[in-house]
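Q: Here's a chain of 329 amino acids. Please give me its 3D structure as tokens.
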Amino acid sequence: SLYSLLGDQCSFGEIAARWIRARKDPEKRRNFMKNWLAYPDDPDETTSGAVNLPLDAGAGAGHRRGAIPAGVDILTAGFDIHKRILYGAIWGWSDRDHHRQGWLIDWNRWPVDMDADPAGVLEIMAEYRNTPYQRPASDDGQPAQELWPLVAGCDSGYRSGQVYLWAASRPWIYAVKGIRGDVRVPPAQKQVSYYSRKLTTATPAGQPLPGGGISRYVLNTGFLKLEFYDSISAGIHQFPVDVDSDLLDHIDSEELVRDPRSGTEFYKKRKRGETEREVVELRGSWDNHWLDCCIYARAAVEILAGGEKLSDLAPHHYRKKIKTSVTNY
């Protein structure tokens, strides 16, 4: 592809951002696929809503998987729990340029049995959360330091009671649940539109939670996803240069639609058959689990920050955690 020829002139992140901007407009999409991907100019082949971006070169400016760029203040994680599989993602965050800048650091998935062995699922999450990453020193005087995710947004849609019990005894776990939500949030309400906080004192089965209960966070995923896609397009959120197509399939698995009756706009999963990536025999919707992990990690940093600057919070939180057991889960 042309990307393999332009690797030292243009980063993968820049090309990905161009695709995000172009993918919803047929003419812009056609031009992108012709000029950037060297696809044939065939309208029948270029009207899909998603495409596998070329990842063969992995060159250009940017960070690699598992590396923390200089300037990152805090790491958070997101977990999407299912009966037989657990998805996780780790993001680095900074607000030094008046934006909530984000870098995808790592992602993974594990075979699990949430029904038979929930303790094993928690152990995997704790081990992944306690993985240390080395941040290099920055040009503005930020010292080199070992970082790890301070908190994790954990999906409570499956086995909610178990997740509530985890969150009640482990402050690093935020029990989250997404709702569709209208994406059209007035700017003045932006800060309060990421999530709402609800006190939960018992599991769905009626078991009292230790400590008087937990804060359960209901996420406006419509608004969060709109901001997430816009931030990718603007280069505020960045992926590693060696990101794989499997993860990008999850990231690009949803589309913005409008309810014709209410006028609300929201994100929903694409159906198989609506993209060039389909295998004809497959049915159902595209997987969006790593997208959800990214949204949970994004919400987690807002919950942790509570409106404060990350650069002010980070030294206190990392010193506090170093004094306690890193491996205590």
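Q: Can you summarize the key feature?
A: Residues 162 and 207 are 10 Å apart (CA to CA).
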